[in-house]
Amino acid sequence: MTCQMATVRGSRRLNLSLSALMFSGLLLGGCAVGPDYQRPEIAPPAQFKAAQGWRQAQPSDALARGAWWELYGDAQLNGLVERLNRSNQTVAQYEAQYRQAQALVKSARGAFFPTVDLSAGKTRSAQGAGSSSSSLSSASSGIRNTYSTQASVSWEADVWGKLRRGLEADKGSAQASLADLAAMRLSLQSELVQNYLQLRVIDQQKRLLQATVEAYQRSLTMTQNQYKAGVSGADAVAQAQTQLRTTQADLVDLAWQRAQYENAIAVLMGVTPADFSLAETDSIPALPQIPVQVPSQWLERRPDIAAAERSVMAANANIGVAKSAYYPDLTLSLSGGYSSSTFANWLTLPNRFWSVGPQLAGTLFDGGQRSAEVDRTEAVYDQTVAQYRQTVLNGFQEVENYMVQLKVYEDEAQVRQQALESARESLRLTTNQYKAGLIAYLDVVTVQATALSNERTVLNVLQSRLVASVQLIAALGGGWGGQMDLVDTP
């Protein structure tokens, strides 16, 4: 009776000690070594330097958030970008990387819970009788079977916040991966839209050159007729033929340029160039009005800046993980089961066994390895902060450059259009004078070449304006509506 009471009291004392230890671990779990994260300070300007002279505009309320390509009002372009979003292989790679990062977050969260193991098995063993004269039967009598089953539970108390800092680092890395995915998707969308707009300008250039070739062909025919009538010389015919063949060569050159843009669009959508083609159209998408928000709003939307900032968060948490190595790990474990030499009474009370107890493990000396790891993580943090700030500076530079570029192209387009109108009028007057026999054909050739050059220059400036508008939208983070979505990882 006394022994039974002593056993019960001992068991109670053990339970109380374990409860107190676990409670202490939970209290200490509120402490996490290492610095708490704070976003590095960035002082954005009150407004962009090149914003003066920009008209304030708002996109249509029906514009889907982030679907910035819809500003160009081209249904075919919208369909191409949607296909890119679904089928681009580079986007698929970044999506897979993000899923890997999500899996690491799930694994880090799983470390907060106990680990439960269960095992069952049978072993057959024997020991020699120690005599060479032992018979086979006596040796066989030393063989014994052991049946065992065991369940064990272990749990690491996050006393110093190592697990929490690790989870914080993994979440930061996962969010950086999500932002990298958004940045890559935006970059590829921008590339496709630029290719599409340039292709449409080439279509317009082809129509211009085709119409010019027809006009030059008529001029050659007229010159040949005048030569036969003795009105003009052979030199005028040669000049007309040279002008016609040169323009035809320029038209042929546009064919391979268009093919390059078309093939690039196909690859961006994840299909082979042989399986894709774009028919020519008669129109070029119009330049959109781009709403330029204040820099503080812009910083919250640009995905590459978000990725750099999340990398700083992960690097900051890794400092805490490194510093927690200075402190011992507390593990609570419990195991129990049954072990018997016979199967019949294997799972019976006399054959049970159990063990329970805490384990405190720490490193007393490591030759400065932990200190070196802390120094390394702090240096990595400083590196990511510098990268974040440089990313912001590069972003400001891109926006300012593209805003200036668009404004300059707008001014240039107005002057170029005026020059084109003057060239057209000069061509009309010169052609009439040639038909009346007042001037030589060489004068007509010169004016025709000037008019064609101005026509192509106007189209080239329009192409540059369209490309610069896409680049500015991408530099602003793409789309409108506030901060970029960075969903919490599961």
UniProtKB/TrEMBL annotation:
Which residues fall in a compositionally biased region of kind Low complexity? 125-141
Q: Tell me which domain of life the UniProt entry assigns to the organism this sequence originates from.
A: Bacteria
Q: What InterPro entries does this protein's entry cite? A: MdtP/NodT-like, OMP_efflux
Coiled-coil ranges from the UniProt annotation:
77-111
| Classification via NCBIfam families | outer_NodT
| Assigned protein family | Belongs to the outer membrane factor (OMF) (TC 1.B.17) family.
Specify the protein name: Efflux transporter outer membrane subunit
Q: State the organism named in the record.
A: Pseudomonas eucalypticola
